[in-house]
C-alpha cells in the first residue's frame, strides 16, 4: 500500500521501520525540518529492538504535507494525541479526500471523535477514521535518526468512525494484530496510558521535580500506594465502559494482551507485581519534568475526555477527578483549554444513547 506516516517521534519512526520492512511504499512526514534533517542525512530511520536492526528507507521524507499525501491510499497519524486537532485541520487544508481512511496510531481516548469533529468544522465531510487504543510500540528515540523499539503490541483494540470493517481491514493490513471492537467508545476506554500514567504522575511529582526523572517509572514509582490508586482508577474506567455497554478487561489483562505485562502472569489483580515485572517497560525512566507528555497528554487528552464520557454516562469517578484536579494545580494549567472536551469531540449536550448512536452510525 502507499502510506503517509505523519510524525517523526518514536512512534512515527517505528512505524516507518515496520511499514517499510513489510514492503509498503512509505512517505515520511514531520512538521519540522530540524527533526527530519538527521533522517534525510541517513536516508531513512535506523531501528533496533523488537523489529530487528537496520535502516528503513522510505520513498519520500518531507515536511511538505501536500507532497506527503499525494497519491497515498491511507494516512497514518503517529503523533501525540494533543496534536490530532491540528493535524486534522492541516490534512483538510492540504486536500485530504473525505473518502480516504486516516489511521490514528494511537487515538487514545476520543481521538477519532476529535479528529472527525475538527475535520468536519472545515466544511468538508470527515474521512473514515480508525483509532487504536494505544501505540503499537513501546519505543524511544535515543538518537535523532533512529528508534529503539522495546515492545510491539500483540493484540491492540481498534475501531472506526465511518467505513467500519472495510477500513479496519486496511488498518489491519498495515498493523497486524488489531482486535476490532464494537465502537470507538470501547477503544477510547481501552487506552491504558490514561490509567497507567496519572497516579504516579501526581503521587511522584516531587520525585520527578527533585531528580529530573532519575528513577524507573514502572518499577521504582510503582509503589503499593500508587498501585492501589491505579486499581481504583481502573475500576472507574471499567464502570464507565459498562455504562456504555462494554465489558472490558482490567488494566493488567489489557496490558497482557498488548504484551507489556508478561504472558505468564496469573494474578491480574496484583497491579504492582504485574506492571513492574513487564520487560518492555521496565527500564523506562520517569518524566524529566512536569512538562512531559504524561502530564499534558494523559490528562488533557486522557482523563479529561474520560471525565466527559463518565459525566454523560452518569458514573461517579472520584479518583479520576482528584488526580485531574491535583495535576492541574501542580502543572499550573487548565486542561480544558485546547483539551479534549466534549465539545472538541462533538458530543457536548448529548445523552449516553445519543453518543452510542453517533459512534455506531456508519
Ligand atoms: N513511545 C511510546 O512508547 C508510546 C507512546 N504512546 C503514544 O503514542 C503517541 C506518539 O508517541 P511518540 O511518538 O512516542 O511521541 P513523541 O513525543 O516521540 O513525538 C514527538 C513528535 O511529535 C511531533 N509533534 C508534536 N506536536 C505536533 C503537532 N502539533 N503537529 C505535528 N507534529 C507534532 C513533534 O514534532 P517536532 O519534532 O516538530 O517537535 C515530535 O517529532 C503519543 O500519543 C504517546 O502517548 C503510547 C504508548 C507507548
Ligand atoms: C511506556 C509506555 C509504553 C507504557 O506502556 C508508555 O505508555 C509511554 O511511553 O507512553
What structural class do you assign from the helix and strand content?
alpha/beta
Strand content: 15-25%
The average pLDDT value, as a whole number, equals: 97
Q: Can you list the ligands bound to this structure?
A: NADPH dihydro-nicotinamide-adenine-dinucleotide phosphate, ketopantoate
Amino- and carboxy-terminal Cα gap: 24 Å
Please give the number of β-strands. Answer: 12
Could you tell me the radius of gyration in angstroms?
Answer: 19 Å
- What is the element string, with H for helices and E for strands? EHEHEEEHEHEHEEEEHEHHHHHHHHHH
Helix content: 40-55%
Question: Rough shape?
Answer: globular
Keywords: Oxidoreductase, Pantothenate biosynthesis
Catalytic activity: (R)-pantoate + NADP(+) = 2-dehydropantoate + NADPH + H(+)
InterPro entries: 6-PGluconate_DH-like_C_sf, 6PGD_dom2, KPR_N, NAD(P)-bd_dom_sf, Opine/Lysopine_DH, Opine_DH
Pathway: Cofactor biosynthesis; (R)-pantothenate biosynthesis; (R)-pantoate from 3-methyl-2-oxobutanoate: step 2/2
